[in-house]
Amino acid sequence: MPNTSAGYGLGASTWLGVTIDSIRLAPGTVSGSCTFVVLMETSGSRRTVPVGVLREEGAELAEVLTRTQLSPELSPGPASPLPVPPGVQVERLRITRRCEGTLYAVADFTGAGGHSEVDCRAVDGLRLAAVHGARITVHERLLAGPAGFGSEGWRELPAIFSRVGA
């Protein structure tokens, strides 16, 4: 369901809840090459936004998602990319903008000290959200815009992670 709110200098904006649908890997890729994390809008429209990440980052995120999907009570595996102090909750990850083919995000935290925000690359924020079970939202203009640098053909790539029930 869309959430209209102000945030990150975007004025009154529509944020759409998304899930990580799959992580796809180009065959024969080597260290430092591109993997795609595919975010799907949760409203059922099947609109997607591919997020290009390095192979190693895609593999780590796939491991975290596989562990939490199969056994939510188990440790999610690799540590959070951003340290989260005890008593602080990761509320939401907002994927806010694209700059030169890279997606960026803002992680929202709450704790005894109130609310705070941290800018991060989308891939770091996605791993943070996966480790801490936070909601993921994307600004609607990113779903409507071009996929970004090097993202052509991602739909044909084999998935190294697929969400159960996808």
UniProtKB/TrEMBL annotation:
Gene3D superfamilies for the chain: Bifunctional nuclease domain
Superkingdom, natural source: Bacteria
Domain BFN, chain residue ranges per copy: 17-150
One GO MF term attached to the UniProt entry: nuclease activity
This protein's name: BFN domain-containing protein
Organism in which the protein naturally occurs: Mangrovactinospora gilvigrisea
